[in-house]
Design a protein that fits this description.
Elements lengths: L3 E10 L3 H12 L4 E4 L11 E3 L5 E3 L10 H10 L3 E3 L5 E6 L2 E5 L8 H19 L12 H5 L3 H6 L6 H15 L8 H11 L2 H5 L8 E3 L4 H11 L3 E2 L6 E5 L2 E6 L2 E10 L3 H4 L3 E3 L4 H9 L1 E3 L1 E8 L3 H4 L2 E6 L7 E4 L8 E8 H8 L3 H16 L8 E6 L9 E5 L4 H5 L10 E3 L12 H23 L4
Parallel strand pairs: 1-2, 1-12, 2-9, 6-16, 10-13, 12-21
Antiparallel strand pairs: 3-4, 5-8, 6-7, 10-11, 11-12, 14-20, 15-18, 15-19, 16-17, 17-18
Helix pairs in contact: 1-9, 1-16, 2-16, 3-6, 3-7
This protein binds flavin-adenine dinucleotide.
Length: about 450
Amino acid sequence: MGVEHIDVDVAVVGGGYAGLTAARRLQQAGKTVVVLEARDRVGGRIWTSRLPDGTPVDRGGAWIASCHDAILGLMREVGVSTYKTWVDGAHVLVDGHRNRRYTGLIPKISPLAVVTIALAQARLDRMAKRVPLDEPWYAKRAAEWDARSVASYLEHCGIRTGIARELFEMAVRGLFTGDLEEVSFLHLLFLVRAHGSIGRLFSIEGGAQENLVDGGAGSIAHRVAAELGDALRLSAPVRAVGQRHDRVSVEAGGVTVSARRVVVTVPPALVLEIAFDPPLRDDRMTLYRNAVAGSETKTLLVYDEPFWRAEGFSGQTSEPGSAAEVTIDATPASGTPGVLASFTFGRVARHFDALDPKARRDAVVDALRRRLGPRAGSPADVVETPWWTEEWTRGCSFAHLPPGALTRSGPLLREPFGLVHWAGTETATTSHGAIDGAVRSGERAAAEILDHLEQAVVPRQ
Ligand SMILES: Cc1cc2nc3c(=O)[nH]c(=O)nc-3n(C[C@H](O)[C@H](O)[C@H](O)COP(=O)(O)OP(=O)(O)OC[C@H]3O[C@@H](n4cnc5c(N)ncnc54)[C@H](O)[C@@H]3O)c2cc1C
């Protein structure tokens, strides 16, 4: 079969939420585009698959905060709606051999532990306010904060009680999913700044986990893709991007694209697998080599109905270090079947990944049975997605930066490289790391490109 040649204004590499949004905005502005997506589906880190009965379930990104205006705006455009995550009933925190039931935000651990967690969160929020959202590397104390790891900060943050410390460490590890020794403290402060407060990142009500998408988060991508029509090419992994004079050429298997601009939206680690001509500079390569995403497994446990609700549980449970470190009710809007989403993060995800699949599944189910009773021991289905083994993602939820990287080369995250522009949640400021950040980054890249293309047609005076 011959190679197909396509001539467009803009080539978009990657059909996740950043790429799809960039393409949509460019098309709306009258530009011709092509989206080249490596997988045989759109959505990237958002992946809604179907259970045997047709129920959509989210294997990747799923939750949306009520302040996530960009993704909510896109959803309104394509006619997709949200519903509230179930929160009624008792949450369960496993502390050693004890199940502590509680309602609201704060587990029933010692008052001293509760106070130390609250103080640590307030301190983090205060420091985060001093980080400029668009240029965290220009914070007054950027050098000091970027030289430190999150692990070192947690050691000295004043939370001493056993379970409180484990809980806080797990919650922060859950944000980055990597080993906290390898995450810059400045990156944590920037993340907090990008989401308003650390409490918002951790919370369901009023927080990042407040809403789910009716029909699954992937339904948004499917609708955007349908409108893109022929402009979307699936199973088209981009291998090479070359720039000559005022044109850029993009090679993706059976397709060669000639464009005026290209926007690359793949996770940073995957940029390294594209051959650039002229080549990317060393400082950019080093940034991408360092920007790794962590290990996280999301396991969906499916039951005939959300039995825990009738038994007075919310479905929100936690046990740091276990095979189900955090669970949250992810039942579809229709109310059946009952779905619990269970997560393990970083070193804990890797520990359980070393078990054979049956032992791993038994460990998750057993942990849930001990928290929610015997019915939790017999799920109708278990759907497991170890994201760091996904060829076109390699880690989740988003890339974290090690000490030193943000101050050394943070500006390169968004700085164009000739005719090549960059998008993707890792390049976002507001909602950095989240679906909303991906959409915002796509909009920013589209605006940047439109600006350049308009300038190119303004006649010289
Ligand atoms: C398990 C998990 C849970 C999460 N939970 C949430 C959540 O609840 N709420 C939230 O807001 N966020 C969540 N996130 C994060 C959210 O999913 C991401 O921030 C967002 O989807 C990133 O979108 P993106 O477009 O920037 O990148 P991606 O979705 O990674 O898109 C990049 C695309 O590029 C493609 N690609 C890669 N290489 C090439 C190549 N060479 N050529 C062509 N195409 C290529 C990929 O296949 C992919 O489709 C979660 C992520 C994971 C993995």
